[in-house]
Design goal:
This protein is an alpha/beta fold and about 475 residues long. Helix content is about 35%, strand content about 20%. It folds into two domains: about 240 residues, ATPase, nucleotide binding domain (Nucleotidyltransferase, domain 5, 2-Layer Sandwich), CATH 3.30.420.40; about 210 residues, ATPase, nucleotide binding domain (Nucleotidyltransferase, domain 5, 2-Layer Sandwich), CATH 3.30.420.40.
Length: about 475
């Protein structure tokens, strides 16, 4: 048996599978996010431990025999978070999360420093880890002086699981301290940002064994023998393992809290100016590129909270087929934006509202706004030389056939929907554990899911959506002028 632990922004998911990858059981626990000031996003690491304890208690109650045969655990986690420990291993302050934009000034300063883009392969975005520590040094110097280790969120969970301090290449690639081509910490980048290598975790590949489950947990969970814990990875890299996306030409679109268009790469070929992320993959000698929007299903959750209807109810207002763009435009910059704008200050907007605008029209505008933003990402990826002939749709938003058909039409490529099942980061984490425990190759384990349906672009509506996309593109400069 193998366990995948996916630590998301809103909670932890535990997925128990057998050696064939078949689902045995799953459990989820929520985690709260605090927003103490505008642009701030923080989380208490104790919530991650409590969530894991709760999820495993549920799995033990439901599947004690299967859990007793556990041989390996893989980890996936939201990237870029700054979890700060003192010399005794105590947490110094709440973790500063990936969607926190307080360090925009520090990010700009690091990004302008010679060597950062060239070595890290990326723009230094405000959400990345290095500018968070630069902000801390300026605004919370007493805490900064006590920092002995900086861990990414899932690596703090690993510390609790194993007692080992380690990080993997794919997650650490999002810190702005990693030489992404060399797959190692950069002494130059660390020095230029006021950090030291001894403050960083040891590095392992995502499928490499990073430690053993602590005997106390082995006993508590009723596990009969030794259990390895592998490196794991950042959530999108591990999700790619879950859907077998690791060869050149493989790609997916993810409609989760954030939105992603990802393409696997067989070599390191960054293009930082495009605001496309170029990171190490969770398997050796492989990289990936992705465009990222900060709010995808988060936009629907925001609309849901304001209209008092669930996202599923709102989506249901539109049916399952697109029939042309609406009259209302929505810019989905609720938390700023990454690709292609790298703009932490921009905020969202509706245009074209009228007295007749109803819940369905607002829902359509939000879905279209997210779709247009993903088209921006796809264009940025193409500008780096990436060539994708089709995409696989994953994430909670992919349950809306309307949304998937919209994206296929906007991107002008077919989008595949996998058969019902778990094909996200939790499965990818379990697959990494399988590779680490058995020594099998990733290709043997990380097969692509069967496709239930292929959604083709609507050629009859392509021109209308191109016109709407051009209108959307024209709105960003106008909105930027109001938020200089």
């Amino acid at each position: 048996m193998y366990l995948g632990l996916d630590l998301g922004t809103s909670g932890l998911r535990a997925l128990l599978v057998d050696a064939s990858g078949a689902l045995i059981g799953s459990a989820e626990r929520p985690c709260a996010v605090a927003h103490p000031h505008s642009g701030w996003s923080e989380q208490n690491p104790a919530e991650w431990i409590a969530a894991c304890e709760g999820a495993l208690a549920e799995l033990k109650a439901r599947h004690p025999k299967e859990l007793s045969a556990l041989k390996g655990i893989g980890l996936s986690g939201h990237m870029h978070g700054a979890t700060l420990l003192d010399a005794a291993g105590a947490v110094l302050r709440p973790c500063i999360l990936w969607n926190d934009t307080r360090s925009a000034a520090e990010a700009a300063a690091l990004d302008a420093t010679p060597g950062f883009r060239e070595t890290s392969g990326n723009i230094v975005f405000p959400g990345f880890t290095a500018p968070k520590l630069a902000w801390l040094a300026k605004h919370e110097p007493e805490t900064f002086a006590k920092v002995a280790k900086v861990l990414l969120p899932k690596d703090y969970l690993r510390l609790w699981l194993t007692g080992e301090i380690a990080g993997d290449m794919s997650d650490c690639a999002g810190t702005s301290w990693l030489d992404v081509g060399a797959r190692d910490w950069s002494a130059d980048l660390l020095e230029k940002s006021g950090m030291r290598r001894d403050q960083m975790p040891d590095l392992v590949e995502g499928s490499e064994v990073a430690g053993m489950l602590r005997p106390a947990l082995t006993s508590d969970w009723g596990i009969s023998g030794p259990c390895v814990v592998v490196g794991g990875g950042g959530d999108n890299a591990v999700a790619a393992c879950g859907v077998g996306c690791f060869a050149e030409g493989d790609g997916f679109v993810s409609l989760g809290t954030s939105g992603v268009v990802l393409a696997a790469k067989g070599s390191f070929a960054p293009d930082p100016a495009s605001a496309v992320h170029t990171f190490c993959h969770a398997i050796p000698d492989t990289w990936y590129q992705m465009g990222v929007i900060l709010a995808a299903t988060d936009c629907m959750n925001w609309l849901s909270g304001n209209l008092g209807k669930s996202p599923a109810e709102l989506s249901g207002l539109l049916g399952s087929r697109i029939d042309g763009p609406g009259a209302v435009r929505f810019l989905p910059y609720l938390s700023g934006e990454r690709t292609p704008h790298n703009d932490s200050r921009i905020r969202g907007a509706f245009t074209g509202l009228e007295i007749a605008t109803d819940h369905a029209a607002l829902t359509q505008a939000v879905m279209e706004g997210v779709g247009f933003a993903l088209r921006d990402n796809y264009e940025a990826l193409k500008g780096t030389g990436t060539d994708l002939s089709r995409l696989l749709a994953i994430g909670g938003g992919s349950r809306s056939r309307y949304w998937v058909e919209l994206i296929a039409t906007l991107l002008h490529i077919p989008v595949d929907l996998p058969e019902a099942g778990d094909f996200g980061a939790a499965l990818g984490a379990a697959r990494l554990a399988m590779v680490g425990h058995t020594g099998a190759t990733p290709a043997d384990i990380m097969t692509r899911p069967k496709v239930a349906e292929t959604i083709d672009p609507r050629a009859d509506l392509a021109e209308a959506y191109e016109t709407a996309y051009a209108q959307y593109r024209a709105l960003y400069p106008a909105l930027k002028a109001l938020n200089p």
